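Example: Beta-lactamase family protein.
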Amino acid sequence: MARKITEALDAARVAVADSGAVPEAAAGQDRPELRKAIEEIVDSGFLGVSLRVRDERGEWAGSAGVAELGGAGKPPVNGHARIGSNTKTFTATLVLQLVAEGKIELDTPAADYLPEFGLDRRITVRMLLQHTSGLFNFTGEVYDDGSIVHGIPVPYGTTGKEWVDNRFHTYRPEELVRLALSKPARFEPGTGWSYSNTNYVLARLLIEKVTGRSLAEEMQRRILGPLGLSGTVVPDASPEIPEPHAHIYYRYEDAGRQKTIDITRYNPSWVSTGGDMISTSQDLATFISALIGGKLLPTPLLAEMCTPHPTGIPNMDYGLGVFVQKTDCGGTVITHNGGNVGSVTLMYSTPDGSKTLTAVLNWVADADMSIATALQNAQQRLVNEVFCGEQADPAQPTD
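Written out as structure tokens, the predicted fold is:
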């Protein structure tokens, strides 16, 4: 598999070209199947959807639904969105750039770079990027027996109101790591796979320790600036999101009554590098094209990034900051999606970088994640439409 991915990445160096924005009025006319797909997804319970596809037919971008509750305007085709765990792919890319420069070794204990936390010396940098460290996820864990161990207040589960009341609170990354380390590990390092935001907060601290600069500075210097990603932001603790953007909402119970509030503005430091960045569908398409096309990493490291490690999730393995997913039609896509409060961002590419799908879906979130089935169906509908050319039964949800 790694060899095939390497060959595909080599081919992608001449196959990938970045495209500019396409006005919706000029797109859409020749892609009725994409227009139909996003309209039907809105009908299934979403406030709005914006979609961007780059393939052999060029670029198509469009949106459906509304940008805010009670409004009539569509979501902006290239609006800003909180991209959740897509942040992990940016962060892993940055770590691998430092590996390429000899400043970090993938198989060196993370404790060698961050001695202040007393990390288990069996945990390597690779395990952080691969989610095989076993470290407790500071946003909470659900165990195989159904038991739940809470971390910080989060918007899903039983602590919805607590998250609402706390949503402008600032957490520092060191605080999140120390909370995680105060809880039992899920498993011995390297003996399992479990998705943990803690791994990527440690990756942030590792980047800052090795470079002597903030993550935001390094991201701008190494990725955002060179690729011209002017719509992408590393917000740290700022609650602001640039215009234009769709709105996101949260419904929760307070004193026995249901309340729905606009939570477009909130302090994202509660998730930190586990999922705090802001971007646009155009910037995400440019980023994943550049990454898979070999513009950000040497081919051997890119091949390592995309080499699948078993996760226990059907048809979905994990590399270093990316999922390697089997499609319903037997193909492979390199992906990382980002679930957030009231929105999800999708980012997919073929292993040769010739076709990408990026999208933002918004809804009214609640503590029970009642949109989950519709979200799973929507994701798979778009993947099948773009990468298989047909609809198929929904597969497993992505993160």
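The mean pLDDT is 90.
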